[in-house]
Specification:
InterPro entries: Homeodomain-like_sf, HTH-type_TetR-like_transc_reg, HTH_TetR, Tet_transcr_reg_TetR-rel_C_sf, TetR_C_Proteobacteria. This is TetR/AcrR family transcriptional regulator. Keywords: DNA-binding, Signal. The chain is mainly alpha-helical. It folds into 2 domains: 61 residues, Arc Repressor Mutant, subunit A (Orthogonal Bundle), CATH 1.10.10.60; 137 residues, Tetracycline Repressor, domain 2 (Orthogonal Bundle). The chain has 10 helices and no strands.
Length: 199
């Protein structure tokens, strides 16, 4: 397990820094302090290793508990918990660095790597968000006809244009950017509730 963790840690750093195409299994093995054979024995091939890196990273940062629904809790507080966790993660420099690496590979004709991060990242988190919203609807906390569509709306509202600004390097002051992330997430939750609270 220690070797597996070391390989995942090395792969995370190298994929972010060099993108998929620029990262070799030799480099991952060297950084992890293991043989290349050990890397292959744990993960099979580079595609599988990349998928595991994405899955591990997202589960570390957005564990399933983030989307826990308590019918006794205030729905605004529940949504705010999710919103702040999501927005802070999606808009931070490391996450955006990962997206840049994926986009670099897609431009070089490797769209399957973008598909991997979509499946392990966005599809998973949207599924968990849909489950939470459906539970809230079933408990009478929200009134939503199209839960999958509302899930996309929620994720979009809480980030605004902040992730794109980070993508283009337009976040000169980290302190004010962090405040904007929180303000945008809170405003997004309020707007979402204005649309979906039971009348």
């Amino acid at each position: 397990m220690e070797k597996r963790a070391a390989i995942l840690s090395a792969a995370k750093a190298l994929f972010i820094r060099n993108a998929f195409a620029g990262t070799s299994m030799d480099a991952i093995a060297a950084d992890a302090g293991v043989s290349k054979l050990t890397v292959y024995s744990h993960f099979g091939d580079k595609d599988n290793l990349f998928r595991e890196v994405i899955r591990s990273r997202i589960q570390d940062l957005l564990p399933e508990e983030t989307y826990f629904f308590d019918p006794q809790a205030d729905i605004e507080e529940t949504l705010l918990r999710v919103a702040l966790t999501h927005a802070r993660l999606d808009c931070n420099a490391e996450t955006v660095g990962t997206f840049r690496a994926i986009l670099s590979d897609c431009r070089q004709g490797n769209p399957r790597y973008g598909k991997l991060i979509w499946e392990e990242g966005a599809m998973r988190t949207h599924g968990l968000m849909e489950r939470l919203l459906q539970q809230a609807v079933d408990a009478g906390k929200l009134d939503i006809d199209d839960v999958p569509h509302a899930s996309v709306q929620f994720i979009t509202l809480i980030k605004g244009n902040l992730m794109m600004r980070q993508m283009f390097g337009c976040t000169e002051c980290p302190e004010s950017y962090a405040r904007e992330i929180e303000t945008t997430a809170r405003a997004g939750v309020k707007m979402f509730l204005r649309a979906y609270l039971p009348r």
